[in-house]
Each structure stands twice: as structure tokens, then as C-alpha cells.
Amino acid sequence: MFVFGLFLMILSNSIVNACEPLSSQKNTSIILSNLREAMRNASIGVYVIFPDDEHASEYTQDYDKRRDWITGFRGSAGIAVVSLTKAALWTDSRYYTQAEEQLDCENWILMRDGLADVPSLINWLVSEANQTAFVRLSSSVR
To answer: Which of 2, 7, 64, 82 has the most CB atoms lying inside 10 A of its own CB?
Structure first.
């Protein structure tokens, strides 16, 4: 019985910790912790980070790359969402491999937009927002 219990414990740990961090991934633990603390202090439950700047330009200056800084992902297409308990990035098939290499897999969920088993950004956002009363978009905060 002990061996069976040990086997289940090892199996569950390997399933939960299926992420093997790469040297190319930026550790975002402290950034997310600080962001979530600021979110709680401001009564914000969900924070959306777009890849473009306040002028909706796809080609942004380094100081406007909020999504890149928070996630470590540097692709031009992708929207990040941080809730008080989860962080996820949606990107399309052009960037799946790049996101796997750059996104901090210990803190972020890669949402491969367009795949059947992946929730849409809106559905996931609504689900997370239902757990809180506040939503704020990053481009409107300065």
C-alpha cells in the first residue's frame, strides 16, 4: 500500500509540475507577485496587457513593451491576462514555438489561440472576472 501511495504522489507531482523551465524563459514570479499586490491594493481583479502602445501601434518603442516585460514573450501577436490567481497569454499558431521558449512556464499558461480545446480570450476573461468585481485594461492606465 505504501508503494502505491508513493507512486501516486510521484505521478501527481509530475503532472502538476509538467513545466521544465528553459534558460530562455524570464522568471516572472516577482513581477507577478508585485503586480498582484498592486492589483489587490487598487481593487483590480483582472489586468489585460496588450502588445501595442496607447496609439494601437503594433510597432512599439522599448518603453511601451509592457506585455513583453511582464511575460518575457517578445512576439508581435499576443495578449496577456493576469488575474489574482492565474496568468495566461493568448497567441496564434505563428508564435506557439516562440511562446514555449520565452514564456515563463511556471507562472504562465500558454493559450494556443485557434485550437479547439483552448478557451477564447473573452470566455476565459469573463470566467476570471466573475471571481472579482474589477477589470482594468493596461493601455488605459498611465
So the answer is: 82
